[in-house]
Amino acid sequence: MEAFQAKSTVEQLATHLRDEIKSGTLRETLPGVHRLAAELGVSTKTVVAAVRQLEKEGLVINQGERRSVRIVGRVKQQRSGTAVRVLTYDKVDQDLPYMIELMHRMKAAGHQPDYATKSMQEIAMDPRKLARLVRNNPGDAWIICGGSLEILQWFVGQPFPVFAMFGRMSGLDLAGVVPRKIPAMQTAVDQLVRMGHRRIVLLVREDHRSPTPALFEQAFLDRLMAHGIQVGSYNLPDWEETREGLHEVLDTLFKVTPPTALFISEVQLFLGAYQYLAGRQISVPKDLSLICTDPAPEFDWCQPPISHIDWNAGPMIQAVLKWTNGVARGQNNKKQTRYKTKFIEGGTIGPATG
User: Fold this and answer.
1) Do residues 79 and 131 touch, judged by C-beta distance below 8 A?
2) How far apart are CA 271 and CA 264, in angstroms?
């Protein structure tokens, strides 16, 4: 057992001031001697002695009588992790189960993750607003969840490490991970065609449609064409990303030539569309086959079970943790990982009618 050593008042005060400098609470200059003595309940002689100790350590410089003591150094400390800033597509994405688990596991690994103060939706995907957001949320590395092509291109040009979860990362020089949903989607399209479907539509957000369709969306159109289906804006419609916009595009679709099958990306959009269909007495799957391109725990409680593309968040979380641990060691691996998914038939698809 080490011998117990009681610290003098001067040593205790020096430790306190050192910790305040280390944490950033004290910056640029120390408060005056009399102020420190009054606030901390010690004598001015004790303050002077403690400041002299910090001066010997190279943390402060005494600039002379009646002048402030300037802070010139920072306490060297062993960092166990990385300050990671996480930028989500929408604020509600922070409540997704896999995001909650990811943040928890990064903290458990010794990193300091935190969400950016605004989402991509809140800055309207504007690179100028993005630059300001990044300046106001300093971090060692950034994780971008569902970034558009323009957003990810901006991050590629920055000096810090960047990791993309989902989003239009293909062909960009940055690390990332994404479920490989194209084969599962192709399986679903093939099955719909065998059931007699020809009017098949995919609803996705604008950044997946513009300026050109992303990989998944283009693969969807290519699969339809492979079955001899002529494709156009009907199959990948434009719409305003609001509740009213979703209702408006669905109204338009069902007004003249109703689709017999509908793919919808993201669970929140799917649930909004599902409620719309129920309100207009469009029966699933009798009148319309419905497929979500993502999984959700809520689907297990639905009757009939929701047809969807299933993927496990585990490989994605592991990829992010491996990359973050590497960044903490000074590495910047830019590998992009795609992992398998599968189509769950469920009970919301059936033979085409009409």
Assistant:
1) no
2) 9
DSSP 8-state assignment for residue 177: E
Q: Would you state the structure tokens that stand for residue 286, as one six-digit string?
A: 């009798």
State the pLDDT at residue 80.
55
Are the C-beta atoms of residues 220 and 189 closer than 8 Å to each other? yes
| Cα–Cα distances in angstroms (integers) from residue 241 to residues 94, 120, 252, 263, in the given order | 19, 13, 15, 16
Place of tokens 């009148």: 287
Query: With contact defined as beta carbons under 8 Å apart, do 319 and 106 qualify?
Result: no
**pLDDT tens by residue, 48-94:** 999 888 887 778 887 777 678 888 765 544 445 789 999 999 999 99
For the chain, list the domains and their CATH numbers. Answer: 9-71 (1.10.10.10), 83-178+313-339 (3.40.50.2300), 182-311 (3.40.50.2300)
Rounded alpha-carbon distances, angstroms, from residue 75 to 83, 181, 305: 18, 48, 58
Q: Which of 312, 278, 316 is nearest to 297 (CA)?
A: 312
Give the burial class of 213: count Cβ atoms within 10 A of its Cβ; 0-12 exposed, 13-18 middle, 19 or more buried. Answer: middle
CB atoms under 10 Å from CB of 140, counted, come to 17
pLDDT tens readout for residues 269-324: 999 999 999 999 999 999 999 999 999 988 988 889 999 999 999 999 999 999 99
